Automatic annotation (TrEMBL):
CDD domains: FN3. Residues 1-88, 89-175, 176-261, 262-346, 430-518 form the Fibronectin type-III domain. The gene is Fndc7. This is FNDC7 protein.
Length: 687
């Protein structure tokens, strides 16, 4: 093994190491350095002197020994040397509380009696500042803003031995930016803030704040754009510079007033036709206002005012587009809501009302601007009749008769509604139709008609009887009139109408009227037998059945028939009769007709007997009913006809020179001057 080396010197320059120097030992290839502090030891192998032991504790006393080494082994430890490591470097905490100061602080260092701190610009300019202190903090002031400084600090022990030093580079915070300017863009509601660059500033922060809003903009340049500003606001604008040391103080605040907000609560009123009043609420920072009004035909007008309302002239039937802007030094407010206001449509012109019937009037007018449809209103009495149409004509029906109406045509638009200022026109309807209450017969061809109506006293009434026989009229201003000379046997429809200057009413409901049937013009009586008479007559107009009557003090004979003839029995011969006929219509109307009296033929004799007088003669006997009547005897046979007439008062006569050998029919009948011979008296056969 090699010889034991001898330590020349051992010293500590760093708090975690001790450097040992010795003389070389022949034959040694390596050396083992050992440091012991009583609790631990540290060994290291080195090639030659000097050698350094590391990983030691600061401010700690160590026993240092050295051994030489070769292939034969290790030498004995050298005599030890006691060496104390130097103090540890203080660990600095550095910051720049202001733009011209740097604050340095550190934790206490073990065994330190004091500290030395020096500061110098890193670029070498200026002088070094050095401070010694027993405290653990100090502040360097009056420094240059935004400048990088190098700070070195170390501690020393009671013997004044310095320990490790600690170096730290620290920049002072920048100075507040100056010459801050704000350029406001009113259209985009944004601002561009600019300033002079600040020494040592790495970034800048622009703060734009109001009572309700705070906006920031960060940049590394000397300007910044702040978007999304609000209208009608006042902002304080400040700029703060930043670097790795911190921030500057904010720059002096610059006031920014933005453009006013668009006016709100805009109301548009047509205080009177042809005048628009536009009003709005005042806006913050609004110095004056401009109102633009553009009509739908392209014409635009405006109003400039410092008040909150403007008046405009307007025309009917137009739509106006209205916008209100507020202004101040910053510019024009944003576009708010664009309001459209449609004025009431114009009132119809060329108004005409023509009655189509008593309760219907057709109203026409010329089209007007702004009207989507038209409403025609007829107000009269207790009723209102409405008609709505897009056409320029309307028919009002079901109007009350005999009523004055105010007819107004209102133009209507969807946007504004109805123009209620249109002037009405007075129109009176025709009188009401009368109501026929009664029809009475005042005579054979005289009919009285009575009616009821509620028309005015100046109304004239016309009653018309219409039938196949023709037309008959009567006129009155009262409640009745008389129809004269109506033909018999006719059916009529009777109606009444009312007339006035306003027009003519509809006809009343028709009332049927039937006149009594006509009496037959011709009536003939023919005696068929002694007790039967045939009556015939001409047809009576309107008659359906007839009742004929022969009446005498001795009795009455009557028949009721559909025909225009009738056989009447039970006639008394030789009697004067009154003749009457009643013509009866289908509905039961009766006409009583009287005719010339009728006398039945004289009675046929009874008890006719025949006696032979000679071979060529006979005598005819009979019994007369009335001695004042002369009789005639007729003898009729195949060989001749013979007759005889006795003197008045006799009841027999003779017929002579008649052929024999024949069969004769003998009839005895009364003799009349005007009538033909009676053929119905009894017959006798004689051979």
């Amino acid at each position: 093994a090699p010889d034991t080396p001898v330590i020349d010197q051992a010293y500590s320059k760093l708090s975690n190491s001790i450097t040992v120097e010795w003389r070389a030992v022949p034959g040694a290839t390596n050396y083992m350095l050992t440091a012991e502090d009583g609790d631990s030891f540290v060994e290291t192998i080195v090639k030659n002197s000097p050698g350094t032991l590391t990983g030691l504790k600061p401010a700690t006393l160590y026993r240092i020994t050295i051994r030489s080494i070769n292939s034969g082994g290790k030498s004995q430890p050298s005599p030890f040397r006691k060496v104390k490591t130097v103090l540890a470097a203080p660990i600095l905490s550095v910051h720049s509380p202001s733009c011209d100061s740097i604050a340095v602080s550190w934790k206490a260092v073990h065994m330190a009696a004091g500290f030395s701190v020096s500061l110098m610009r890193s670029d070498g300019l200026g002088r070094m500042l050095k401070e010694t202190t027993t405290n653990t903090s100090l502040i360097f002031t009056n420094l240059d803003p935004g400048t990088l400084y190098t700070i070195k600090a170390y501690a020393w022990n009671a013997n004044g031995m310095p320990g490790d030093d600690f170096t730290y580079n620290q920049r002072t915070s920048p100075n507040a930016p100056v010459d801050v300017k704000v350029a406001f863009n009113s259209g985009a509601l944004r601002a561009v803030v600019s300033w002079m660059p600040t020494e040592g500033a790495l970034t800048y922060s622009v703060t734009v704040s109001s009572e309700l809003l705070k906006l920031r903009c960060n940049t590394s340049s000397a300007s910044c754009m702040v978007p999304s500003l609000q209208c009608g606001s006042e902002y304080c604008v400040s700029v703060t510079a930043y670097n790795d040391a911190g921030s500057s103080k904010p720059s002096d605040a610059v006031s920014l007033k933005t453009i006013p907000c668009a006016p709100v609560n805009i109301s548009i009123e047509e205080d009177e036709p042809g005048h628009l009043l536009v009003s709005w609420s005042s806006t913050t920072f609004g110095h004056y206002y401009v109102v633009f009004v553009k009509s739908d035909d392209g014409l635009e007008v405006h109003c400039n005012t410092s008040y909150t309302q403007c008046h405009f002239q307007s025309d009917c039937g137009f739509t106006y587009f209205i916008s209100v802007f507020a202004y101040n030094k910053a510019g024009q407010s944003p576009l708010g809501d664009v309001f459209n206001y449609t004025t009431a449509p114009c009132c119809p012109s060329d108004f005409r009302a023509v009655f189509m019937s008593s309760d219907t009037v057709r109203v026409t007018w010329a089209p007007v601007r702004g009207a989507d449809l038209y409403e025609t209103r007829a107000a009269g009495g207790s009723s209102v009749v409405l008609c709505k149409d897009t056409a320029t004509a309307c028919t009002l029906s079901a109007l009350q008769c005999n009523t004055p109406y105010n007819i107004t045509v209102y133009s209507v638009s969807e946007a504004r509604g109805s123009n209620t200022s249109c002037t009405p026109q007075y129109v009176a309807t025709a009188p009401c139709s009368p109501e026929i209450k009664n029809i009475s017969k005042d005579g054979l061809s005289v009919i009285s008609v009575q009616w009821h109506s509620n028309n005015e006293e100046t109304t004239t009434y016309v009653v018309t009887a219409r039938g196949e026989a023709g037309l008959w009229h009567c006129t009155s201003t009262g409640n009745s009139c008389t129809l004269m000379d109506l033909p018999c046997g006719s059916a009529f429809s009777v109606s009444a109408t009312a007339r006035s200057p306003a027009g003519q009413s509809l006809p009343s409901y028709s009332v049927p009227l039937e006149t009594a049937p006509c009496c037959p013009n011709d009536l003939i009586l023919t005696q068929v037998t002694q007790s039967v008479t045939n009556i015939s007559w001409s047809v009576g107009m309107g008659a359906q059945t007839y009742v004929t009557t022969l009446e005498s003090p001795k009795g009455q004979a009557k028949c009721h028939t559909l025909q225009n003839y009738c056989l009447l029995g039970c006639i008394t011969c030789g009697t004067n009769y009154t003749v009457s006929l009643r013509a009866i219509s289908e509905t039961g109307l009766t006409s009583s007709c009287t005719y010339q009296g009728y006398s039945s033929s004289a009675c046929c004799p009874s008890g006719v007997k025949l006696y032979r007088l000679s071979n060529n003669g006979i005598r005819v006997f009979w019994r007369a009913f009335d001695e004042t009547i002369n009789y005639n005897a007729d003898l009729r046979g195949s060989k001749g006809n013979f007759s005889c007439t006795p003197s008045l008062g006799l009841s027999h006569c003779d017929i002579t020179e008649i052929p024999c050998g024949d069969v004769y029919t003998v009839v005895v009948a009364p003799v009349t001057d005007k009538r033909p011979k009676l053929t119905f008296c009894p017959k006798k056969i004689y051979s």
